[in-house]
Design a protein that fits this description.
The complex is a heterotrimer of chains A (about 220), B (about 270) and C (about 90).
Chain A (H helix, E strand, L loop, with lengths): L5 E6 L2 E6 L5 H13 L9 E5 L7 H13 L3 E6 L33 E4 L8 E4 L2 E4 L8 E4 L3 E7 L2 E4 L8 E7 L3 E4 L2 E4 L13 E6 L2 E6 L3
Parallel strand pairs in A: 2-3, 3-4, 5-7, 6-8, 7-9, 8-10, 9-11, 10-12
Antiparallel strand pairs in A: 1-2, 11-14, 12-13, 14-15
Chain B lengths: L3 E6 L7 H14 L4 E5 L7 H4 L10 H5 L5 H4 L1 E2 L6 E4 L12 H14 L2 E5 L6 H8 L3 E6 L3 H16 L6 E7 L1 H5 L6 H8 L2 E7 L2 H9 L10 H13 L14 H9 L6
Parallel strand pairs in B: 1-5, 1-6, 2-4, 2-5, 6-7, 7-8
Antiparallel strand pairs in B: 3-4
Helix pairs in contact in B: 1-11, 5-6
Chain C lengths: L1 H10 L4 H19 L2 H17 L2 E3 L5 E7 L2 E7 L2 E4 L6
Antiparallel strand pairs in C: 1-4, 2-3
The chains are: A mainly beta (about 220), B alpha/beta (about 270), C alpha+beta (about 90).
Chain lengths: ~220, ~270, ~90
Amino acid sequence: MVNEDVVINGTNGGILIRLNMAEDFNTMKKQLIEKVRAIDGSLMGSSVEIDIGKKYITRSETAEIAGILAERGLEFIGILGRKGSGPGKPSGQNEQPLLKIQARGQEYKFSQETVTIRRNLRSGQKVEHKGNIVVLGDINPGAEVVAGGNILVMGILRGLAHAGAQGDIYAAVAALRLQPTQLRIANHITRAPDGETVFGGKEPEIAHIKDGRVVIERFKI
Amino acid sequence: MNGNVLVITSGKGGVGKTTTTANLGTALAMMGKRVVMVDTDIGLRNLDVVMGLENRIVFDIVDVVSGHCKLKQALIKDKRFEGLYLLPAAQTKEKTAVSPSQMKRLSEELKQEYDYVLVDCPAGIEQGFRNAVAGADDALVVATPEVSSVRDADRIIGLLEAAGLTRARLIINRIRPKMVRRGDMMDIEDITEVLAINLIGVVPEDEIIVVSTNRGEPAVTEYTSRAGEAYRRVARRLLGEEVPFMALEYNEGIFYKFRKMLGMAAR
Amino acid sequence: MAIWDLFSKLLGRDRSSKVAKERLRLVLVHDRSNTATVDVLNELKEDLIKVISEYMEIDENALEVSFSNSDNSVALVANIPVIGMRRAVGK
């Protein structure tokens, strides 16, 4: 019975996850994490829609769900609701439901949202998200972070980071230690020059495109 | 041009498949051959790091077989040797992202352009192994002088035969002449006798391998390295030359000779 | 070498490479019997039935042929229930 709060289905071209928002969000979240982890790896990169039925969802809950999906390499593209759902009483605490729930078939674009990853990303792990990505941890060699927007790493970036993956040349990558294997911004690709294993220094730095080149500068906070 | 697709495999992990691939690929390129090394260990790629090319990867083997990019875009040119290329494995995908039939097609395409296609096989006997073997014309089996490794090599030889690769040749890696001499390591005859396949190389344990892996420069480029010399000989044998096997003597200098005179050499 | 051999004898144990080779031999007999030899065993079974049936009546369905591993050897074990002797074994 418990497991029926989260139902994952394949659709043509993506994945549809039905959530029982009547259930306590944290209980449901646990199930969601479990089920999302069990999703076959070949589906990585698929787009996911969330069906919340006639219930409500808050912005922070939505962001959490997007984060869970991103950790498995799934792209959250929208929330679906059924007739009768709309703004009203929030499902959880005193938070107002800020997301406008739209009728089935219409996507809610989530592009400018930020997901937060609160762990280290290890070799073989990949996080992709249309908006910004904040990593509270390190990105090890062999791990990849691909964002439509900016990437902020509160830790050491040793793996691969791609900001502005959809072509946004104003995107930036910032890290407390910027020592990536490879750095990409929009269509630009850079790496450490031969002979140097590490680029970047010992202080926070930010990489962005200036005059058509990727430049790395001290990140003054 | 029609090249040779060689799969380098072992069954057991950690016996030196990737090191062997990197060194043979480099040695063949040093001899003027056009070589491409293919890393099929999807999810656990390593050949790029051993070759020191990890920061140049943009596309990988999965991108190629799925049509995400052209083959030429994914091939990484070696920084030292002309005619040496690497097709890296994907790191963030699963083994099932490539199928044996896709590997076969890829091998066919690569051998039009290159003299040697060296396929670095993942450990194990599952899909990764089946992929690596799919397009191969020949196989090199790497084993270390340990019971577990030789046993796995035997299993692999059986599977290779079942896949039609009946001429597999053996590389004995990480042999320690000192231990062999005092009877604490199986020697070459012990191993070839059990496995009953042709030997193509004997590579001694060599600290320079660790150093060269640290640096991302294969040991064959290091002329003082005994393992490097052994790999250069394997490469020459691949080209059909008759090359004697290296004497597995340990150059222990004057003390050794002195002790030998006193009949204490076995120590 | 001689010194080590003497040493080993004194300690009453073989050099480990010999031990390794022996263990390897046994494990490979077992491995190979598990995989490739299934067909061989079936053929052997049929041949056994053919030959033995000339001399005695056996329960073909209960016949069992397998490899058995003990500490340091591998044996071929056949269990063949005899139902009765053939009367005329005239050759």
